[in-house]
Prior knowledge:
The chain has two domains: 2-165, no CATH class; 219-296 and 319-450, Heat Shock Protein 90. The protein contains 14 helices and five strands. It has helices spanning 2-8, 21-47, 57-72, 81-98, 100-103, 106-122, 126-149, 153-161, 173-260, 265-298, 303-306, 322-329, 353-373, 408-419; strands spanning 335-342, 378-385, 388-395, 423-428, 434-441. α1 crosses α7 (126-149) and α4 (81-98) packs parallel to α7 (126-149).
Amino acid sequence: MDRIAHLLGADEHWSRPALTLEQRRRDVVLAVGFYLLAALSLELMRSLGAFEGGSALTEILTQHGVAASAALLLVWRRSHPLLVASLATAHLYVSGSFEAMVAGSLVLQILYFFAIFSGVSWARDRRALGYVLLACMVALALWLAWIFAVSSGLDDIYRSLGITGDSEGIFDRPVAAVGYVTLNNLIFFGGAVLIGQVSWRGALHTQRELQYAETIRTQAARLRDQAVVAERLRIARELHDVVAHHVSVMGVQAAAARRVLEKNPDAAREALGAIEGSSRDAVGQMRDLLGTLRSGELAADGALEEAGEAPDRAPQPDLSDLEDLAAEATTLTCTVTYTLVEDRPGAAQEVPAALQLTAYRIAQESLANVRRHSTATNASVVVRVGTQLEVEVVDNGTAIHGTSGTGLGQQGIRERAELLKGEVEMGRRHGSGYRVRVTLPLTPPERSGALVAGPNGATR
């Protein structure tokens, strides 16, 4: 029995959903339609003289009552499929015993077939379905045995089949009659079960496909939201690096200008010029980054073009911009140098853009930390390009008390490196000074959206 239940789908842990009001209405219409067809079929058969002595009113009402009661079962074929299949089987056997011509009509045979098919297709308890089908098979065997046991059973079969002559085949007439009726009933019952099971399996696979499609839509929406959040985080980190760097430069230059304003006006003027240039650079970079956000929101409907704003943005900084970064970071109190070491000419230009931007931001954040938290008078940025990319920022100062910060700047450097499977070394040097050294592989793993930024951290 477990094997039968398994074949019927008892292990699938799925059942048909509840019926809708529209489906219930369709079943009512179907039942009415079957009865009308059955009634028409009965009257056509009566006109052909199929019912001998069946013109009495009671006989006519009985015949139509058999057809109506069979059609009525279809109203609940999907709400109570096992009950309907059982009652349809019992109805077939009872009506076939007392109203054989009615039960044997084409419309009623299709109705019984459809009722058993619906029971298999819509049964929600597949294990119970196995017991119902087994009971129907036993009932079929008992009914056939009873038909053949009745003295007039074979004569009725001969008459329904139009048999009048002697046997000419390899089987005796009684054996042939029994075999013919049994074979027809097995094909009738087995066909209904088989097609019903195919229908149930089809509904199961359709439901699974719908669930898979819904899962894919949900995951796609989640990934899309994650990509948006990740892009915004990247832009926020870039904004932090830009603002932290330029504000730090402006603060140092302003302090220097204030100290030498009366003693050395030329030096003060130079420092103020550096503040002006740094502020313009910061505003330009922030505008580009914020424009990226805005272009993502408006590009879908062409709002940028309509507003006359081209999505044209300045390129992201790379290794070639480190020399300018070092010059910009140089102040009256701290000199910054930049050195590029290549294992062969042109190696730096072959470094992937993601790594170049990461190296630039690491150097930018390190120099910002030097200005904010160190007494250094010299700092150096060294980039080595060989089998891997190495960025090293070294200064000769000591920490300024009371400016320890939150540590998010160093965390940002570490996360930038981790995104690209790099290694980070940070710490004080022997004697005085601080060193930040980051090593990045030249073949970083691909990441969605090529995100290469760290968190918006500030200080070490």
